[in-house]
Write a structure and sequence with these properties.
The structure holds two protein chains of two kinds.
Chain A (H helix, E strand, L loop, with lengths): L1 H39 L11 H13 L3 H6 L5 H19 L3 H4 L6 H30 L1 H7 L11 H20 L2 H26 L4 E5 L12 E8 L10 H6 L1 E3 L5 E3 L1 H6 L4 E7 L4 H29 L2
Antiparallel strand pairs in A: 1-5, 2-5, 3-4
Helix pairs in contact in A: 1-4, 1-6, 4-6, 4-8, 4-9, 6-8, 6-12, 8-9, 8-12
Chain B lengths: L4 E10 L2 E11 L4 E5 L6 H8 L7 E6 L8 H4 L3 E4 L11 H11 L5 H10 L13 H14 L4 E4 L8 H17 L3 E6 L3 H4 L4 E6 L2 E7 H7 E7 L3 H7 L1 E7 L3 E7 L10 E4 L2 H21 L1
Parallel strand pairs in B: 3-7, 3-8, 5-6, 6-7
Antiparallel strand pairs in B: 1-2, 1-4, 8-9, 10-12, 10-13, 11-12
Classes of the chains: A mainly alpha, B alpha/beta.
Chain lengths: 317, 294
């Protein structure tokens, strides 16, 4: 059964391996270059320093590390764990669709044994592929994480990609046993994967743990947000209520400094209910907590979906 | 020794439709049984339940004394099954298909399987996808036989094959039965495919068993009677009437005779197996028409 599972999943496993190999070939040289440059250009001393000179050093560094980081920034690579997960479900779904399971289920092994081994293989490969994906980007991001904080590429690092791959696999299996037409099931499952990821990334994740908030005045530096995940940062009054006045308030508060240079009077802004900054954020220290929650969420749903698929297979007449 | 296959009030319902209903039969070991009936009579459902692919909705089924669901691990190695569409992994080579058989069956007979493939003149490296329908059926049968089952269930094994491939397939079955102790159940809606091979017959129609027994006994007991119409009822009292048709003064009856038929006023003809089966299936068609009309 182990040989059969491997033989049937060979193509999909090779596709996953090819995708990861392609990413490795692209990102490993770029990662080595970025790590070298980080040392050469003394970027480390500019971590957490907001001076103009440091802004220049960091900007220059990012510029010199090449275009791949920009590609990663675009978020398109988030599609890859889903693609691999969905692909790994196809051999099982095709077997069910074209009735060849009637061959497998009438050999000397039980159906429970069959589905157990098949799922074990698919899940194992998904974990390996997700871990490979994560390892590559976690390593590549080391210098960038020091500068921008680890929140920046949260869904490419550590546990999260493993959860995403398992989730896509579970989705495809569950939809597949319901729809019974593999091609349609894979498309629907992939769409659902993208929708779920967007929902979590842009809405759910920030609510998983109540965020911190801070309000500070013009003369205070405020909390160090350079490596935090800033959910919102807006002008506000002293109590932290967001500034509701429009452009006319700014215009009313513009004062000439005497030397012809214009500035905004902070005292005037404060009178109009502004002059302070209010930020809602997740601190860098919560990174692991969020990684754990994100993984548990996606892997947990994946477990339920996979168990449902197995149950349906065992009950198939 | 327990029978190879026993069903008792076995039924399967899909939604509100019964695919098979109240099926009670016993297939003794060592027999080769033809399971005959029109399309939709429940032949496939019966065989699938026997091998544990489908769960019964009513009644019970036992193969070699075992429940195919509860005792699956014990029953499966002893039962061979060939589904109607001869399922094989399309992208596999024949050698890989044999490996599937070897990996999944403890009793696998590699030597016999290889010998059979060589006899068929099929290269081991050939992909299953590129085989003809007949070759595919033969490879699937090779797999089912190399498992060395005690009971072999073949669901419409030759329905999709051309006449030559049919003959070759059935020849393989005959050889396998001659080789060793093997009980075979073959289903078909065409009796001609099976008659040469089988020694027992089960007729399944309207989802029920209509007739079951040894072919010899069935042929010996069924007669075609032609006689006066007004005495048809007297005949029915003595013998089981399978089918009747009336002309103005004369009646023709197909009966399953209980004892000899002596009566000077009735002419008695022997029937061959096909005519008997048709009489039962005709009865089925007539009942269905009644069901539709009522």
């Amino acid at each position: 059964m182990i040989w059969l599972s491997w033989r049937q999943q060979r193509t999909e496993t090779l596709i996953a391996a090819a995708i990861l190999a392609l990413l490795t070939v692209a990102f490993v040289p770029a990662g080595i270059h970025a790590a070298d440059l980080y040392v050469q250009q003394h970027v480390a001393r500019c971590v957490d320093r907001q001076t103009q000179a440091c802004g220049f050093v960091v900007g220059n560094y990012v510029l010199n590390t090449g275009v791949l980081r920009g590609l990663l920034d675009s978020g398109w690579f988030n599609l890859i764990p889903g693609l691999i997960g969905v692909a790994l479900a196809t051999p099982i779904l095709l077997d069910l669709e074209n009735g060849v399971v009637r061959l497998a289920w009438t050999q000397s092994i039980t159906r429970r044994h069959w589905i157990g081994t098949k799922l074990g293989f698919a899940v194992g490969t998904a974990v390996l592929a997700g871990a490979g994906f994560s390892a590559l980007f976690t390593w590549y991001e080391i210098p960038f994480d020091r500068i921008f904080g680890r929140w920046d590429k949260f869904d490419f690092e550590w546990l999260a990609p493993v959860g995403y791959t398992l989730f896509a696999l579970g989705l495809a299996l569950a939809v597949g046993v319901l729809v019974r037409r593999s091609a349609a099931a894979l498309v629907v499952a992939y769409g659902a994967y993208v929708a779920a990821r967007l929902f979590v990334q842009y809405w759910l994740r920030q609510h998983l743990v109540a965020p911190l908030s801070a309000t500070w005045g013009p003369r205070s530096a405020g909390p160090n947000l350079s490596s935090a995940w800033v959910i919102s940062q807006v002008p506000s009054d002293k109590a932290g209520h967001p500034f509701s006045g429009g452009a006319q308030v700014f215009q009313a508060c513009v004062r000439s400094n005497g030397d012809g240079f214009k500035g905004v009077s902070q005292a005037c802004m404060a009178r109009h209910g502004a002059g302070f900054t209010h930020a809602v954020y997740q601190p860098a220290s919560r990174f692991w907590e969020f990684q754990g929650i994100e993984f548990a969420l996606f892997a947990g749903v994946a477990l339920l979906l996979t168990a449902f698929a197995a149950w349906r297979v065992l009950r198939t007449d | 020794m327990t029978a190879a296959l026993v069903t008792d009030g076995l039924g399967k319902r899909y939604g509100s439709q019964w695919a098979l209903r109240d099926c009670t039969l016993e297939i003794p070991r060592g027999s080769v049984t033809a399971l005959v009936g029109p399309n939709g009579a429940g032949k496939t459902t019966l065989l699938r339940m026997a091998v544990g692919l489908t769960r019964p909705s009513a009644g019970s089924v036992r193969v070699l004394g075992l429940d195919p669901h509860v005792d699956a691990a014990e029953a499966l190695p002893r039962v061979g099954f060939l589904a109607q569409e001869h399922p094989l992994y399309g992208g596999f080579t024949i050698a890989e298909m044999l490996r599937v058989g070897r990996e999944l069956n403890p009793g696998w007979d590699e030597e016999a399987a290889r010998a059979r493939i060589a006899e068929l003149d099929l290269p081991l490296k050939k992909k299953v996808r590129s085989l003809s329908g007949g070759q595919r059926a033969q490879v699937a049968l090779t797999l089912a036989l190399a498992k060395r089952p005690e009971l072999l269930l073949l669901d419409e094994p030759v329905a999709s094959l051309d006449p030559l491939a049919r003959r070759e397939f059935m020849q393989t079955v005959v050889e396998a039965v001659a080789d060793r102790e093997l009980t075979v159940v073959l289903s078909s809606h065409i009796l001609a495919d099976l008659e040469r091979v089988c020694d027992r017959l089960v007729i399944l129609a309207v989802g029920r068993t209509q007739l079951a027994g040894s072919i010899e006994e069935i042929v010996a007991s069924h007669r075609l009677l032609t006689g006066p119409r007004d005495e048809a009822e007297d005949v029915a009292r003595l013998h089981d009437v399978v089918r009747e048709s009336h002309a103005e003064r004369q009646t023709t009856l197909v009966v399953r005779a209980n004892g000899h038929v002596y009566d000077a006023r009735w002419t008695v003809h022997e029937l061959d197996l096909e005519e008997i089966v048709l009489a039962y299936l005709g009865q089925d068609a007539a009942r269905r028409r009644e069901a539709v009309l009522s």
